[in-house]
Write a structure and sequence with these properties.
Blueprint lengths: L4 H22 L5 H14 L4 H10 L2 H14 L5 H7 L5 H14 L1 H13 L4 H17 L3 H14 L4 H19 L20
Helix pairs in contact: 1-2, 2-4, 3-4, 4-6, 5-6, 5-7, 6-7, 6-8, 7-8, 7-10, 8-9, 9-10
Length: 201
């Protein structure tokens, strides 16, 4: 019986993969109710569906990207923060808004990836707009003293006369300050930027 257990688990895993693939397709269904049901189904599958969710956020059609951004904003899983920072550069305003809401819901857990994104892609107008929204919301919702000071420093740069040139070093200084306060090494967290060719943001 034990010898066959590995083979018995494989069909179950294959069935789950097929179910995830079907739900991903339904995210772009013309029927809004079916799109919502697919999103809820993927959320119920949890981590098993996460690679497909993140891939869809990056490469899927707009309806699908909106649905997975909505899912991630509701889950508020800190491990998805880099993907949501990248989504702040999405061409769809709805996707960008949901990404910002998701990062805001993560509070401090979303702050480091956001700062890393500003360091590497401060030229993106959409990223700067999204970061401004997120930092203001985090600040208004209440942050610890260090996080509050970091948010204020970066907001000043975002609202200054030359944010694209000032932000990288301001965000880097803020990130170093944040990591030192948490007793962490100074290196950057995972880089959320994937500056694809043809990005008009």
């Amino acid at each position: 019986m034990l010898q066959g257990s590995g083979n018995e688990r494989r069909p179950a895993a294959d069935d789950q993969s097929r179910a995830i693939a079907r739900l991903i397709v339904l995210l772009n269904d013309p029927d809004q109710a079916k799109r919502r049901q697919a999103r809820l189904g993927l959320m119920a599958l949890g981590q098993a569906a996460m690679p497909s969710i993140l891939n869809t956020l990056k490469f899927g059609p707009e309806n699908s990207r909106w649905q997975v951004a909505k899912a991630l904003s509701q889950l508020a899983d800190p491990s998805t923060a880099p993907a949501l920072v990248q989504a702040l550069r999405d061409h769809s305003f709805g996707v960008r808004w949901l990404a910002a809401e998701g990062l805001t819901a993560m509070s401090c857990d979303g702050l480091e990836p956001l700062l890393a994104g500003l360091i590497c892609d401060a030229d993106s107008v959409w990223l700067r707009e999204g970061a401004h929204h997120v930092l203001h919301s985090m600040h208004d919702n209440g942050l610890a003293e260090t996080e509050c000071a970091v948010a204020e420093d970066v907001l000043c740069a975002l609202e200054g006369p030359a944010p694209a040139s000032e932000l990288p070093w301001k965000a880097e200084a803020a990130l170093e300050k944040l990591r030192q306060a948490h007793g962490q090494p100074a290196e950057l967290p995972e880089n959320p930027c994937d500056c694809a060719e043809g990005d008009a943001s």
